[in-house]
Design brief:
Length: 56
């Protein structure tokens, strides 16, 4: 129990939690960006394919 209390008062534990939250937010932002870029790229190539088909 004493170790748990010491861990709760430790600034190192708080810092580790803060870094974990920051990394989680960065990960979520990166995944959202990658998903949106993938959708945009897919839509662009669909348009290119349609234009090429109509040109023939």
């Amino acid at each position: 129990m004493r170790n748990l209390y010491r861990l709760m008062r430790s600034t190192r534990a708080a810092t580790a939690v803060e870094y974990g939250l920051i990394l989680a937010l960065i990960f979520l932002a990166a995944m959202s960006t990658i998903t949106n870029v993938g959708r945009s790229t897919s839509n662009m190539w669909t348009g290119v394919s349609s234009a090429a088909t109509n040109a023939m």
